[in-house]
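Worked problem 6 (solution included).
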Amino acid sequence: MKKSVILLLLVFAACGKNSPHNSVTVPDLILAANNRGNITGTVLLYNNEGAVSADNSAVTVSIDNNNVSTKTGADGRWTLDSIPAGTYDITYSKEGYGSGKLMGVNHAATNHATTLISHSRSLNQLSNIAVTAIQTSFFDANSNMASLIQSGVAPNGVHIEPVFVNSSATLKPIRLFFSDNAGVSAANYSATEKERFSGKANEMNDYNHSIAWFVSRGFKPGQTIYVKAYGDGFANDEYDDPITGLTVFPSLAAASAVTSFVLPLK
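Solution. The predicted structure is:
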């Protein structure tokens, strides 16, 4: 009796494999099962003072254009289980923090192999710094003197000072965007730089750059340069969006008004 049952099952399996109603044959089902594996990594949360959180849990990690997602544990580790082989864009996000992306993750999944994202990713708490003004002045890079218009010495550098309320002694990260266009923004700029500032006006060591610095970024002496400032997070969390071709800065606060200056002649 047992032999008859086994024989009957083999017949059904053979018919099922060759049936036009089945889109995947038995060997392909086995191959598909073998080409699944986990994708795993770590996300760390940074607060507005630049410290890593003791609890990195509840970050949502998901595959774009898919309903597959997971959450990080307290140590920031996450695992997407049994993912078919392929190339994926992965998004990680948490309320109150900037979102991040891992673009073009190649997941081979050969023989159930796990794809490890070796470097921890960072999520900054959304910046709480609101820049109220940007002060600019000129200086001599050799003597570090500001406002040399009165001294009669030709300036060869530009000092830029974002003004904002800083409730702690920690220097705060501010990202500056430069352009030759008055419509400068985080999505429309020729050069960008993130520096740490105290928020106090007239501190000459915060952000001094020579004319050569601007020239190396495509600007010309005598040209009007426009600048806008945003509060930013401590960790570097920017990423390139292949669709728009833009670099995305996900932790930025509200922007300052645009300030302009004429780059001194050499």
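Discussion: The chain has two domains: 22-124, 133-262.
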